[in-house]
Amino acid sequence: MRIPLANLLVKSPLPRIGELMVAVQACADMLPPLVEAVIAEDSAGLDRLAKETSILEGRADEVKNMVRDELPTRLLLPVDRRDLLRLVSEVDAIADCTEDVGVLFTLRPLTVPDGMREGLRDLVVGVMDTVAAARELVDTLDTLVKAGFSGRAATEALERVTVISEREHEADKLQDQCAKALFRAESELAPVALFMWTKVLQQMGDMANHAENVGDQFRLFVAR
């Protein structure tokens, strides 16, 4: 079957993935102020931050849709189309989880148990470090493409993947510590508050999980 030349000359969607990561990072950066607003019991500030987070998640969705729209089925790509779509989904999911945290915080007033406050801040740092490592990896995509996903560029990418995995593991441990602190304060909390905090910690942990999945997709690119 002959493929029309015009189909082969379609602009590559790969640069858009970097643009998507920038939009997702902007959304993820709302996590620290959201948590600080909860700690400060600043309901007005929290509502404002949650709305801003939703707007930023919407912008990330717009870029995600552009990436998908610019990914023709008949374009010769340096990596499998399905793997690219999985990468796009994993990057976008980071913003989705951030928005979910903001929504959960605004469903009902939540108080941070004293014994969990610093652990919660540590978890935020761990999650943000993992997302930042994923952003750094996505920034190398253009270089990887030019290098044919081989050589020194591939080696450096795999090193970055390892860093993401290590940071996600640290975030997992911090999430576990937060959960233990939460359940130590169980008697101080209403059952619904305990449930809500469990969901919040899960969504925060999922931000790091999706960042790690971004690294796993890059590993597939290099190992193909």
Structural description of this entry:
The chain has 224 residues and is mainly α. The chain is 79% helix and 0% strand. Helix 2 packs antiparallel against helix 4 (43-69), helix 3 (31-39) packs antiparallel against helix 4 and helix 5 packs antiparallel against helix 9 (191-223).
Task: Give the helices and strands, then pairings.
Elements: H1 5-8, H2 14-28, H3 31-39, H4 43-69, H5 81-107, H6 117-138, H7 141-146, H8 151-184, H9 191-223
Helix pairs in contact: 2-4, 2-5, 2-6, 3-4, 3-6, 4-5, 5-9, 6-8, 6-9, 8-9
Strand content: under 5%
Structural class by helix and strand composition = mainly alpha
**Low-confidence stretches at least 5 residues in length (pLDDT < 50)?**
1-10
Could you give a short account of the major beta sheet? none
Named CATH topology? Methane Monooxygenase Hydroxylase, Chain G, domain 1
What count of structural domains? 1
